[in-house]
Amino acid sequence: MKAIVVVDTNVPITANGRAEQASPACQLACITALRQIRAQRRIAVDRSGLILQEHRRHRSPGGQPGLGDAFFKWLWNNQANPQICVPVAITSTNDGRDFAEFPNDPDLASFDRSDRSRSSVRFARRNDPQRAPAGCRGPQAARRLKPRATVAKPACAGCTKRYRMMCSS
């Protein structure tokens, strides 16, 4: 079965060449990452559509002019295809966390609000009793996963900014 990833909006932006801080090597790494995702991964998205809406704000739904735009068009056209997209339920809150699945931890109070939907999808998948391995559920899981919520797999080794993709299995 294909691994499931959550794609940060900065990866397609960088692939499009619209991230001034990103080096050409980083842009190439993001292009490579998007190609690998299309060929070898499934993408977790929230059922409410917040992640796709955020991607849409930064990309052309027509699929041009860049590879990040083409990736978004492919993702948008395949959002109902279970071979490509995995819908994950997350719950909006008014308690400052934005989502019930996001850890209620003072250390994460400054965590980028625009990244919380993607992180919440990741936490929801980790806490799903139908798919999470034993010992990776409930409040203890949030404490163990907290470092993973703030550190994501870089798209390229030279990146020092937020151009990355978050991966979860």
Overview of this protein structure:
With 169 residues, the chain is an alpha/beta fold. It has one domain. The chain contains 6 helices and 4 strands. The chain has helices at residues 10-15, 24-40, 50-58, 67-77, 116-127, 138-150, and strands spanning 3-6, 41-46, 85-88, 166-167. It has a 4-stranded mixed sheet. Helix 5 runs antiparallel to helix 6. The longest helix is centred in the first third of the chain and has 17 residues, at 24-40. The chain is globular. The termini are close together. The model is unreliable at 129-154 and 160-169 (pLDDT under 50).
Uncertain regions spanning at least 5 consecutive residues: 129-154, 160-169
Give the class from helix and strand content and strand pairing. alpha/beta
Count the E strands: 4
Alpha-carbon Rg, integer: 16 Å
Distance between the termini: 10 Å
What's the mean pLDDT score? 76
Beta-strand content estimate: 5-15%
Shape annotation: globular
Biggest sheet record = 4 strands, mixed
Write a short abstract of this structure.
By secondary structure, the protein is of the alpha/beta class. It contains six helices and four strands.
Give a topology summary.
Blueprint: E1 3-6, H1 10-15, H2 24-40, E2 41-46, H3 50-58, H4 67-77, E3 85-88, H5 116-127, H6 138-150, E4 166-167
Parallel strand pairs: 1-2, 2-3
Antiparallel strand pairs: 1-4
Helix pairs in contact: 5-6
